[in-house]
Amino acid sequence: MSAEARIERYEQAYQDDYGYEAWLVRARRGATLAAMKGARRVVEIGCGTEPLFGEVGDQADAIERWVTVEPAEAFRREAEALAEREPRLRVVGGFFEETLDAVRDALGGDADFVVIDGLLHELPDPMAMLRAAREVLAPGGALHVSVPNALSLHRRLARAMGLIADVHALSDRNVALEQARVYDPSSLRAALEDAGFAQIVLGGHTIKPFTNGQMEAVERALGPGVLEGLASLGEELPELAAEITADARRGS
Asked: Distance between alpha carbon 218 and the CA centroid of its chain, in Å?
């Protein structure tokens, strides 16, 4: 399957499966915004249906230029609509690894902060993206990554119930969204080190005891306050969190 066809399938699958994902996106972005305080030149790789620039709030004053890179046309249109109202935001279409010159041109130089949220595990070659991210970062620049956690509570529970033999096994949802792997903290740290990053700090967000569909049922039965509490609890118990966060610096 061509890369373009894969992106089209992903667009549809992502939008069809949004549901509880909206809660994960909210928590994921909260972690990202906390990590990027003071950033001036930002590259966001993949924006989904809601470009992150629209949520920076008080941090917007520090930003000089923001470049969003998005290969999916439907998602890119959302960013382009926002860019029409915000001159500091530029949008580059295509795959990040193939558009580094265009990204630098749009940014006006090197980045001091690169965001790869909820994306790395979906790529055929995640190391190529990590190395490309390092390439566009200024010396000492920061990278923020988030990925699903193979050691999360809901995967451990699935293994204990005999539903999966290995917490690293791909779920039906992983397959539907063409997600090629599931990282654990050790494998994510190793990938970042291999790509030339240092000062790696791992964390997490959101305790998710059940599948996405079951979590929607939890919200209907118990209300949103439970999901809000579980999102915060993931920061206290990152080893059980639904997603791993990693903050790292470009090594020398």
From this structure: 24
Q: Which pairing describes strands 243-250 and 137-148: parallel, antiparallel, or unpaired?
A: antiparallel
122 contacts: CB under 8 Å, gap ≥ 6: 10, 177, 178, 179, 180
First to last CA, the chain: 37
Instruction: Count each helix (H run) and each strand (E run) in the chain, helices first.
Output: 10, 7
Summarised one tens digit per residue, pLDDT across range 127-165 is: 999 999 999 999 999 999 999 999 999 999 999 999 999
Domain containing 235: what range?
Answer: 3-250
3-class secondary-structure state, position 42: strand
Q: What is the pTM of this model?
A: 0.88
Nearest to 47 by CA among 22, 77, 21, 17: 77
Beta bridge partners of 204: 244
Query: What string of DSSP letters covers 167-202?
Result: TTSPPHHHHHTT----B-HHHHHHHHHHTTEEEEEE
Which domain CATH number covers 85?
3.40.50.150
Q: How many domains does the chain have?
A: 1
Report, as ranges of residue numbers, the positions in the chain whose pLDDT lies below 50: 1-2, 5-7, 9-10, 12-16
Burial readout 68-84 (b: 16 or more C-beta within 10 A, e: otherwise): bbbbbeebbebbbebbe
What is residue 149's three-state secondary structure? strand
Question: At a CB cut-off of 8 Å and minimum separation 6, what does 79 contact?
Answer: 47, 51, 53, 68, 70, 89, 91
Output the pLDDT for position 57: 84
**Sheet strands side by side (includes 41-45):** 89-93, 65-70, 41-45, 111-117, 137-148, 243-250, 197-205
